[in-house]
Amino acid sequence: MCSDKESLAVGTELLVFGKEVTSHVIFRYSILTNSWSSGMKMNAPRCLFGSASLKEIAILAGGCDSLGSILSSAELYNSETQTWEILPA
């Protein structure tokens, strides 16, 4: 079973990953506007992932999906464009 929440600082944002009853959600906090908003959904929602960030880029790898299956994929998040990109294996 997945964790209820994860968080990651990237660029001028704090990303908070959580779980609703039927899906994963991402919320973004902007330190520039002092406000919260919904974030873009990942291509493969995950929790319990490994992560690293540098400036406006974050990489999330591994983890598990909502069924508890282990993921071997990774995604890159760009906080300037607010987009997710699947990384090659």
Automatic annotation (TrEMBL):
Determine the domain of life of the protein's source: Eukaryota
Q: Where is the signal peptide?
A: none
- Tell me where the transmembrane regions lie: none
| One cellular-component annotation, GO | nucleus
Q: Sorted alphabetically, which keywords does the UniProt record give?
A: Kelch repeat, Repeat
A Pfam family the protein falls into? Kelch_1
Cross-referenced SUPFAM superfamilies: Kelch motif (SSF117281)
Instruction: Report the PANTHER family cross-referenced here.
Output: F-BOX_KELCH-REPEAT PROTEIN SKIP11, GALACTOSE OXIDASE/KELCH REPEAT PROTEIN-RELATED
Q: What name goes with this protein?
A: Putative kelch repeat-containing F-box family protein
Please give the organism: Prunus yedoensis var. nudiflora
